[in-house]
# Entry
Amino acid sequence: MKDLSIIVLSYNTAQITYDCICSILTSLDHDAKLNAEVVVWDNNSQDESIKMLAKIKDSRVRIVAHKDNLGFTGGNNNAAMIAKGDSLLFLNSDTLAVNDAVPRLYRFFVSQKQFDFLGARLVNKDQSPQASCGRFYTPLIAAAALFFKGDVWGASRWPVRKTQKVDWASGAALITKAATFSSLGGFDNSIFMYWDEVDLLYRAAKKKLTTGVYPDATFIHLEAASSNTRSQPIIKVFQGYIFFYKKHYSPLQQRLIIYMLQLKAAVALAIGIVSGNAYLVDTYKRAYEITKKT
# Structure
C-alpha cells in the first residue's frame, strides 16, 4: 500500500503531460518519506505521448496505455481502481506542481478531519490567481455566471485564497481518500469531460461529505490546454449544465436552465454576427443547437 497515488490522464498532449509528470516527481523529491506513486492513464493517444512518457525512467511512475478513449471520467475511474494509494490526488495533465505542492497538499489533507475532499490553489501561467472553487450551480448562481460575470466578481466561483469549506473545488488538483472516492462510485462515467468534479462533489455533499480548499499548495493550470478547439470548453459547459440539471434538479428547473442557456447562446450569437466574430458565431450556434436537442 502506498500513502498517495497521483493520477494523471493523458490524451494527445505529449509535451504537456511529460512536463506535468516531471513537475510531480520534482515536487515529491521535497519529501523523501512520502511513499507515493504516479499513475498515468493514456486514453489511446494518437500523438507521441506514449513514446515521450517512456523517457521517464522512475520507479514511482506507472504508465497504462489503454486501447480505447474512455474519456476523462472513465480514464480516471479505471486508474483509481488500480491505484495503490490510501489517498488519491487527481491532477490534470495541464498542471505543473510548484515546489513542494504535492507533498504539502497531502500532508495537510491527512492531518485534518474537516474535509473529505480538498482542492489546491490554481494559478495561470503568469502566476495570476485562477478561479477554481465555488458554489453549486443553482438557478440563481447559474444566472449570475451566465449573464452577470459571476465568475469575475466571485458570485459563482473564485480563486483559492484561504482554507475554507466550499461547495466544489476544481478537479484539476483534487485529493481525497481512496475509500471515499470508491464509496461514491467514482466519477459518473456518462460525463465524458467537464462538470465531472461538480457532479462528484454534489453527490458527496448529499452524503454529508465536505469539500475544502487549501491555499498553501500551488499548481500552475494551463486551463483548456487539453481541449481540441477553443470552442470545446464552452460546448462542454453547455452540455454539463444540461446533464447536471437533468440528473439533480426538478423538471421545472431543467426547463429554466434550458431557457437561460438558449438566451445566453442567442445573445452571444447576435454579438458575433454584429461584430463579424466567426468564432462567436460558430461556437454559440453549436451551443444553441445542443439546447434544442434536449
Notes: The two ends are 45 Å apart (CA to CA).
